Backbone:
């Protein structure tokens, strides 16, 4: 058990730093085993007097400290494991610190570390303090001058933020490179990379005609896999110019791929470090989904250059200021890229596909977070370890909160609000309030009598609101009355604060429309406006709207485009849902209706003893699926979404108590039933969506064909019929791309007998063993297979290619098994295995360990016997956890 208690940091305790540090000079004598860092800066007091300069540092050795040129001995300052305190009396004090760190020993991958013999840094949120003592907080912004010195053969390339000022060979065989970043920045955006890399580059002109150099660096030998990344970077640059009017402010923009990386990527100013999984792509080894993900992550980091770097966060409670906004920008970028070149109807469908994918992510990751002990507002009130707060709430719900502002303001006013935000705050470290103030200034100016005051509560209240829908139609008056009630119960740690004021209603934008019983859109009147679609602003606990000129009992199409991150309580008959699934003109709404039918069928199936498919909701699903399969007006990508069954993880969020094994069994039953009953249609789709022999292209249309074809394959294979498995085997043998190979391999591994699947797994491994990202896939397919139990997983961990030290590898096997193998993990031995892996990872990489610990943090929602078994596993974890990261998760999980 960890005995050291981590203090809770509270949002209201923030105080401005007592010093200004306008410039910092760093000299790093690079060496994988022992790097020496000389840090020099002038600390200027903001207020005259005596002040203690507090500098954070972790796992560093102090070689010397000089103040105003004088060497200070240990009696003049204080030093503990976290902080160097230097009492100062002069207004300006020159500080020089010489320190040492050990990159090769750094398995946490925060600070300066070694990956594949090369040096990388990760400083956000608090990694800079593992490189040198410094005011490691985002509101201290300085201009950096960085001198890198290192062995010329070991580190032929030495990169840092900004511009390369000079290089020179030193007499001792080392070389030196000096970098200067003209923009003041917080320490979390500092970066260094050193080693030997391939580079792909391109010079492009920005909107105003400035030439800039774009570069993508990768491990030697991977240079042929960076074309898509460089193209994606250029597309990001263009999109930010066109949609947001934001131009690249640097002469040089570098991306470097690292094999070992805790997250997806990092937006360090001018020198992004990326997980190689989000850089490297080629047709043989990269799936369609990965091509899209690479484009999205490159966009995300690029967009941070304005929303994050030019305007940054005052403190880490404001994390969603940059992350929510940047995820929103990334989502819009991806949607615009999918819709590029399409006519307006096709573009709307393409964008709906993106919205559906984003909403699925939100529901699985964020709605479940809201149910658990880590539930927090997008601007949290407190934390113990900030690394634990890079959550679905900060990112995905944060993006939803920005999206709602976009919906309320409209594109033009939203862009005007963004412009105002930069006008006010460029170059500053600010708060979420500053952002919404800028938005509100435009909103209240253009909507007299209105403001965003109620809307701001989204920043302070945690939880997924529920909205209950009540409908009333009066044929005599031709009036339709819609009543909505919102409910915002206390969640997570809010429940522990018994003095807290009751939560207040939020402003919830609700996009809706009405259909007649034939499924046609109805044009009706509300407050003098005659329209097919309305945006209702629900800002009271209960509110009603009366629509006029409604000729017959209408069908409500609610929450179109998922206009707010809420849970709807709406009793709808199977007939109504079927009608919406057939006719809703809103593509998102149509998908939602079909999914709702599937959810109802799956929940019903999971609670019936015999899993009998002889129930009305299952019949409704079969009917709708049958019609959709014959509808050739819908895009293949959209069909692939609407015909997929909701995941067990999504279904769990709708159950209390949660019965994942029953849900997994129900899902399998329905999959097999649909596969069998509609076998001919699946078979036809499988054939219709084969692409003619041509080189692979990741474009959205081709990817849509592959997605639908592979969904058909999956439904057929689930029946485990000889002919379906033969189809998968033939597909595997003939595939010319990773999407098709993996889909076939997955079908074989999930549904064929091991004697059949093992040779395929062996072939796959033999072919791709030298490509780490593909080996990750090989582990993942097996980790998620219903045929892989804990014993089989332990055997896989013995494979020579497995290591816990590489986050991608740990995620591909351990995380996939714990989070996505519902049939095998929810057993006592599954939970024991999970706890064991959390402990093993905790000793190496606390940030990753804490993420794994969160896999079951909502243990109390499980039915027995899972609940008890998980509780036991948590108690064991509590005994053994070492890091502040894991300790916070366990503490919160047990304190419910
Ligand atoms: N800003 C980084 C987060 C890195 C945090 C690592 N502990 C990634 C991103 O959101 O772009
Ligand atoms: Zn981000």
Residues:
């Amino acid at each position: 058990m960890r005995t050291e208690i981590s203090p809770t940091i509270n949002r209201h305790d923030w105080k401005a730093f007592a010093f200004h540090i306008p410039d910092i000079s760093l000299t790093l004598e690079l060496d994988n085993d022992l790097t020496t860092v000389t840090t020099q800066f002038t600390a200027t007091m903001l207020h005259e007097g005596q002040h203690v300069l507090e500098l954070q540092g972790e796992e560093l050795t102090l070689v010397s400290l000089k103040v105003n040129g004088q060497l200070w001995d240990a009696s003049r300052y204080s030093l503990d494991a976290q902080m160097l305190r230097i009492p100062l009396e002069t207004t300006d004090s020159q500080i020089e610190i010489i320190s040492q760190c050990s990159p090769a020993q750094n398995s946490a991958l925060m600070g300066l570390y070694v990956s594949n013999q090369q040096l990388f840094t990760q400083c956000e949120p608090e990694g800079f303090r593992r490189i040198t003592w410094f005011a490691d907080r985002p509101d201290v912004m300085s201009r950096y001058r960085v001198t890198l010195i290192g062995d010329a053969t070991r580190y032929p390339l030495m990169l840092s933020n900004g511009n390369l000022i000079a290089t020179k060979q030193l007499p001792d065989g080392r070389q030196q490179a000096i970098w200067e970043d003209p923009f003041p920045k917080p320490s979390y955006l500092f970066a260094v990379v050193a080693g030997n890399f391939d580079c792909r580059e391109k010079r492009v002109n920005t909107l105003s005609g400035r030439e800039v150099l774009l570069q993508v660096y990768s491990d030697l030998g991977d240079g042929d896999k960076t074309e898509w990344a460089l193209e994606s970077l250029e597309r990001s640059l263009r999109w930010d110019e066109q949609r947001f009017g934001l131009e690249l402010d640097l002469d040089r923009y570098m991306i470097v791929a690292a094999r070992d990386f805790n997250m997806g990527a990092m937006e360090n100013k001018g020198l992004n470090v990326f997980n190689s999984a989000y850089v490297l792509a080629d047709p043989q080894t990269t799936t369609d989904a990965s091509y899209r993900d690479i484009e999205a992550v490159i966009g995300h980091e690029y967009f941070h250059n304005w929303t994050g770097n030019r305007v940054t966060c005052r403190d880490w409670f404001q994390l969603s200021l940059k992350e929510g906004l940047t995820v929103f920008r990334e989502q819009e970028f991806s949607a615009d890229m999918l819709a590029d070149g399409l006519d307006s109807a096709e573009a709307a469908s393409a964008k709906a596909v993106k919205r559906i994918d984003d909403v699925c992510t939100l529901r699985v990751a964020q709605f479940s977070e809201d149910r658990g002990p880590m539930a927090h507002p997008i601007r949290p009130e407190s934390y113990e370890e900030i690394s634990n707060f890079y959550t679905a709430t900060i990112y995905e719900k944060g993006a939803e909160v920005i999206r709602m502002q976009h919906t309320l303001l409209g594109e033009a006013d939203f862009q005007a609000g963004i412009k105002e935000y930069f006008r006010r705050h460029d170059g500053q470290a600010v708060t979420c309030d500053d952002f919404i103030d800028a938005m509100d200034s435009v909103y209240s100016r253009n909507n007299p009598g209105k403001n965003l005051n109620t809307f701001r509560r989204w920043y302070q209240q945690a939880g997924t609101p529920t909205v209950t829908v009540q409908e009333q139609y009066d044929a005599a008056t031709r009036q339709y009355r819609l009543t909505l009630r919102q409910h915002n119960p206390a969640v997570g740690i809010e429940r522990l604060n018994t003095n807290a004021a009751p939560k207040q209603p939020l402003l919830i934008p609700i996009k809706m429309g009405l259909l007649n019983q034939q499924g046609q859109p109805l044009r009706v009147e509300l407050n003098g406006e005659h329209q097919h679609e309305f945006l209702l602003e629900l800002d009271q606990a209960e509110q009603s709207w009366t629509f006029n000129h409604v000729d017959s009992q209408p069908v409500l199409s609610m929450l179109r485009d998922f206009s707010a991150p809420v849970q709807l309580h709406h009793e709808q008959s199977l007939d109504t849902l079927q009608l919406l699934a057939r006719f809703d003109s809103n593509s998102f709404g149509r998908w939602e209706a079909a999914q709702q039918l599937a959810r109802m069928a799956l929940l019903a199936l999971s609670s019936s003893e015999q899993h009998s498919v002889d129930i009305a909701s299952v019949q409704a699903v079969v009917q709708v699926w049958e019609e959709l399969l014959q509808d050739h007006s819908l895009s293949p990508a959209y069909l692939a979404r609407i015909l997929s069954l909701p995941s067990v993880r999504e279904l769990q969020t709708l159950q209390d108590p949660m019965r994942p094994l029953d849900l997994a069994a129900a899902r399998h039953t329905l999959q097999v039933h649909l596969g069998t009953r509609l076998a001919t249609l699946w078979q036809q789709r499988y054939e219709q969506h084969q692409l003619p022999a041509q080189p692979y292209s990741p474009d959205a249309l081709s990817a849509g064909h592959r997605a639908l074809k592979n969904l058909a394959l999956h439904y057929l294979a689930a029946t485990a019929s000889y002919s379906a498995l033969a189809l998968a085997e033939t597909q595997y043998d003939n595939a010319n791309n990773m999407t098709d190979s993996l889909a076939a391999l997955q079908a074989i591994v999930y549904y064929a007998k091991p004697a059949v699947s093992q040779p395929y797994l062996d072939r796959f491994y033999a072919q791709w063993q030298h490509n780490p990202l593909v080996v990750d896939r090989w582990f993942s397919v097996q980790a998620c297979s219903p045929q892989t139990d804990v014993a089989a997983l332990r055997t896989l961990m013995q494979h020579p290619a497995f290591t816990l030290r590489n986050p991608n590898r740990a995620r591909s096997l351990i995380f996939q098994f714990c989070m996505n193998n519902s049939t095998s993990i929810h057993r006592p031995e599954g939970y024991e295995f999970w706890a064991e892996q959390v402990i093993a990872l905790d000793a190496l990489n606390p940030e990753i360990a804490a993420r794994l610990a969160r896999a079951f943090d909502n243990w109390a929602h499980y039915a027995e016997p899972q609940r008890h078994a998980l509780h036991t596993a948590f108690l064991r974890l509590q005994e053994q956890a070492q890091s502040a990261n894991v300790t916070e998760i366990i503490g919160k999980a047990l304190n419910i």
